[in-house]
Amino acid sequence: MRKEKLDELHSYIDELRVKRCELLDAHGRFLTSERYHIELNNGKTFIREKLVKNGRDGSAAIILPVTVDGNTLLVVQPRVFTKNGVGIELPAGYVDEGETHARAAYRELYEETGYIPENLRFLGAFYQDQGCSAAYNKAFLAEGCRREGKQHLDGDEFIRYFECSVDEMLELVDMGYINDCQSQLAIERGRQYLKK
Fold first, then answer.
1. CB under 8 Å to 130, separation ≥6 — which residues?
2. Would the pTM count as exceeding 0.85?
3. How many percent of the chain have pLDDT more than 70?
């Protein structure tokens, strides 16, 4: 990893690191849970809780962007409940009601980075956490990305995007900087296309 790129990444990490986290209440507005009584065909019964995100299942699109220059884009943002308090990951976001995963991928990439892809290639789909969520995520390789504007973040989003080479991104995975499972899965699924 080039020193100047690592220094740039560290400046974003320092900027977006959590300074203080204070419990306001135990009743969520965005994240809630629903309790269900389950009965199986064999007659066994049990209780399970399901996480609900903003009244929906929380399905998301994960985007592995590759620019026209062959670089990739990562996002750096607060992830307050992680050990480091900051996440370095692929752009991603929730699928809005009535929206396809592919459309969400285009929208989220543009909102988080200002880039638009020439083409989207489906890489795979997975459940985020089958034990307590119905969130079904789809990963895409966004090829031929060009900057078309500036970021369009929500009021409570604080995201810096970070451009680096594909090899540097892979090195960041190996170094433990990119450690969320959805980014790692998309990167692993996209490797076959990244070296061509």
1. none
2. yes
3. 97
